[in-house]
Amino acid sequence: MISYQQVFDEIERQLQQARRTNDVSAMREALAAIRSLSEVALSGSGEKLVVPKTVEKKKVVAQPQVQSLNSLDAKPLEEDGANGSSLFDF
C-alpha cells in the first residue's frame, strides 16, 4: 500500500528531475509520471492507496520463417544482357 506522502515525495522527485534537464523529451517523461502519480492519488480513497502491480510485458521475438530452397528448384533470374545462370557469366 502506498501513502499519499509517498506519492507526494515521488511527484517532488519527478518535478526536480524535470527542472534540472534541458531535454524536452526527459521533461515530458517526468510530467507524464507526475500525471500518473496524480491519477493514482485521486483514484484512491482513505489514508492508504492500493496500487495494482504492473503486468510484466513479455518480449515477443519474431522467429524468421526460413524456407529451404534447393538450388535446383530455384528458377534463375533472367535479365537483359546476361549470358548465363552463373554469377561469373558476364
Question: How does this model look, in words?
Answer:
With 90 residues, the chain is mainly alpha-helical. The chain has a domain at 2-49. It is built from two helices and two strands; from the N terminus they run βααβ. It has helices spanning 4-20, 24-43; strands at 2-3, 48-49. It has a two-stranded antiparallel sheet with strand order 1-2. The chain is elongated and about 80 Å long.
SSE layout:
Layout: E1 2-3, H1 4-20, H2 24-43, E2 48-49
The unreliable regions are none
The general outline is elongated
- Across the major sheet, the strand order is 1-2
The radius of gyration over CA amounts to: 29 Å
- Main sheet properties: 2 strands, antiparallel
**Average pLDDT value?**
75
Count of individual beta strands? 2
Residues in β-strands, percent:
under 5%
Distance from first to last alpha carbon = 75 Å
In helices, the fraction of residues equals 40-55%
Order of helical and strand elements: EHHE
The total count of helices amounts to 2
SS class: mainly alpha
Question: What labels would you give this structure?
Answer:
90 residues; mainly alpha; two-stranded antiparallel sheet; elongated
Compact description:
The radius of gyration is 29 Å and the shape is elongated. The chain has a domain at 2-49.
